[in-house]
């Protein structure tokens, strides 16, 4: 049985890339091919994600042969939700939570209230958790 992931691969990579950039010493940057290689992401995919993050002013870049990308946003203020939302995170635990959904059950459904509550808990947690708490640092031997 195949299951769909709640978080897309692109969203997961965006979190990893942001956490890696947040761990770089202040003033340092990394080129996208190296970043992609270190995080086991294709360079093409990494470039597309960096473009979205840059458009949202989460990252920035220095152009040129010796340029690279760096985290522009403050990692202590940047939430997991901010990053996920930039990459198209549209969480809905159940179809019945979508605005356009028309429920056939006229007598009421207690599951709806459950899903509303659980979704709210998750979103609030994602907004509370900051990238600075998830830094990806390389281990040096």
CATH architecture of the domain at 9-91 and 130-134: Orthogonal Bundle
Tell me about the biggest sheet?
2 strands, antiparallel
What is the strand arrangement across the widest sheet? 1-2
> What is the CATH homology-level superfamily of the domain at 9-91 and 130-134?
Winged helix-like DNA-binding domain superfamily/Winged helix DNA-binding domain
- Strand tally is 2
Tally of helical segments? 5
Element string (H = helix, E = strand): HHHEEHH
The structural class is mainly alpha
Instruction: Report Rg.
Output: 18 Å
User: What share of residues are in beta strands?
Assistant: 5-15%
The average pLDDT is: 89
What is the overall shape?
A: elongated
Text of the CATH class of the domain at 9-91 and 130-134: Mainly Alpha
Cα-to-Cα separation, first versus last residue: 42 Å
Could you tell me the CATH topology label of the domain at 9-91 and 130-134: Arc Repressor Mutant, subunit A
| Helix fraction by DSSP (H/I, runs of at least 4) | 40-55%
Description:
There is one protein chain. This protein has helices at 9-23, 32-38, 43-55, 80-86, 110-128; strands at residues 59-62, 68-71. It contains 5 helices and 2 strands. A two-stranded antiparallel ribbon has the order 1-2. The longest helix is centred in the last third of the chain and has 19 residues, at 110-128. It has a domain at 9-91 and 130-134: Winged helix-like DNA-binding domain superfamily/Winged helix DNA-binding domain (Arc Repressor Mutant, subunit A, Orthogonal Bundle), CATH 1.10.10.10. Helix content is 43%, strand content 6%. The protein is mostly helical. Strand 1 (59-62) and strand 2 form a beta hairpin. The model has no long low-confidence stretch (mean pLDDT 89). Helix 1 (9-23) packs across helix 3 and helix 2 (32-38) crosses helix 3.
